Amino acid sequence: MSKHERDSLAMRKQFDKSPVLDGKAAIGAMTVDKGLEVQLVATEPMVFAPVSTVFDDRGRMWVVEMMGFMPDTSGTGEDKPDGKIVILEDTTGDGVMDKRTVFLDSLVLPRGVCLVENGVLVATPPQLWFIENNNDKPGKKILVDSTYAAGGNVEHQPNGLLRGLDNWIYNAKSDRRYRKVGDKWLKEATTFRGQWGITQDDKGRLYYNNNSENLLGDYFPAGMGGKNPHQQNAAGYDQKIVKDNHVYPAHPTPGVNRGYMKGILDDSLRLVEFTAACGPVIYRGNLLPADYAGNAFVAEPSANLIKRNILKDSGYTVTGKQAYQGKEFLASTDERFRPTGLYNGPDGALYITDMYRGILQHKTYITTYLKNEIKMRELTQPLSCGRIYRIVPAGQHPKKILVQEDQLLQLLNHPNGALRDKAQQYIIDHRLTALVPELRTALSGNGTPLMQVHALWTLEGLHQLTYADLAVILEQGSDDYKVQALAALPSVLDGKTAKAAVAKLDTLADKPFFAPYVAYLLPALGKADKAAASRLEGKLMKAYARDSYTSAALVNNAVNREAALLKQLEAFNPDTTLALNKQLHAVLKNMDNAANAKKMDALAVKYPRGYKIFNTVCQTCHGKNGNGIASMAPPLNESNWVNGDKSKFAAIVLYGLTGPVEVHGKLYKAPEINGDMPGIGGSDEFSDSDIAELLTFLRSAWNNNAGKVSTDDIKGVRKQFNGRQKAFTAAELTK
């Protein structure tokens, strides 16, 4: 044991207790920004283990309770159907929920809820269901997606169900979006985003994160990208908005999964950087001080805190920085404070769901070190707690504002974005077409910029938007307003409107700012006028092949035409350093790798346990095609580590790997990817035989062609490193 480890152990003995606090006492353990206070909205037995929530038109909270998450360090009984969707209501107007109604029960690890028309969209792995609401009782069930959360584990499955400004429903840890049109549910491909939690700003751009990165997000409208399944890491999407990942806990936090490793905790045993970032929100309310507007807040349950970030919008790029150095917006000394999600409330307050429990790490990745920490401080029990808080100006007790039909147009102009969203959704869900004339009046210049945007998308949601509506905006609107009109253009493009649209897009394409947006419209334009889309593509390619954002948009349009487009590009400009050239080559390589589908199907049959573990554990970070996922992990396909020394590969899978690591001559390190890959050797879930089959599967998958790994090989590596807990570094393994 090193001196650092001995010193850390001595310090840990000072923090061997983690008492359970009631809701009010838990607030006493928090510090929050000056001038603000935390108020208790609900606590057990009103709510248990809340992980997600959404407000309805009456200001009630529909809460997802994930009771079954990690009942103990082995996850015993995790598949027990004890999850619920509950409705919490404040009947007295004091801001405290006093009525609980169970809408759905007997769910296994539910993860998301969304209110649409007369029903509720519920994510419960692996399905996504739409359930009609009959006076707060479940009615007819409609299966929306049978593979919504197929594969992965509870930490790495789709979640979110955010109704976006553009009327589509978006998710984190997913590349699909959904929309109800009449009696049908539409499902479309979109850009892959994040891990847990998703939010939007006033322009409808999406923000998210993964567990080790503060804030990621999109520069461009949510629905524009994601059309080319061969394209990965499209410039302008999945951008690092806030690159600083440091956190500043209010107390020692030794109970993190890799707390034994040097650099994870500082000398006072406080977490140094994010390890469980989740549940982000862009504050769009009007209750907190004005300088909080547009800020991004991010939960870090491992360190019992909430981060505040200040964002800067410049052109179509968004950058951000932490609001403070050395402290946090909110920090608790209570180890059981586990904020899972942050939300804008109809009263303008910032809401927090707190799972309030000791175990946060899923069994798949939990280390022996963390198991001991949990045992030492008796963190397994209780499992029957849960809290919801709101943050308000000190001394204030704001009242909820209801969404009422006679005030809908006024609410579309409300300074609280949560209310604008609800008014838009109410008009669409209730098909209030009688409001179309007034919406069109607001659209044409009779409203504030925010109201104009919501009027535009409300008309789109009612299927009442016309090309004539957008043409006025594209001619006279501000740049930001034109972007919204361009994002909505696909909904009105057809053979009749294509000619006029092409003329306008051709003009806009001459302006560098609009070039990426125009390029992202090519797939929709191609359906209406293929020849015009082809001409515009050629113009954009010749003018903007050096621009990474426009190039990404052109690749987005080139589904199964990538090789032809590259040949066309090289014919007039053979420069291999062009952004478009590089991006097309990357996509063509991805396509070559995807051609291994039949081989993978055969391997799944030959090594069923290995494939299942890959699908549950590995693909969530390394990708189903083995080519890695931006901000998550490097490739497994053709990896020198996978195909090399099987003992070293086994050591990585058993004990984990901490970066940086070189793959194919490229150095992968944080923050480009997660800094650490957790090992699974300490999990009770996988036997040595399982792990051997997993490694054999991976060494045979895609373009890999290495030898088998036996159970004895795994046992030998365990014997060689008997008692080891910490992850390897690449340098250790190469010695």
From TrEMBL:
Keywords recorded for this protein, A-Z: Heme, Iron, Metal-binding
Entry annotated with the keyword Transmembrane helix: no
Pfam families, per database record: Cytochrom_C, DUF7133
An example molecular function term from Gene Ontology annotations: electron transfer activity
Domain Cytochrome c: residue ranges: 605-702
Record protein name field: C-type cytochrome
Organism: Chitinophaga fulva
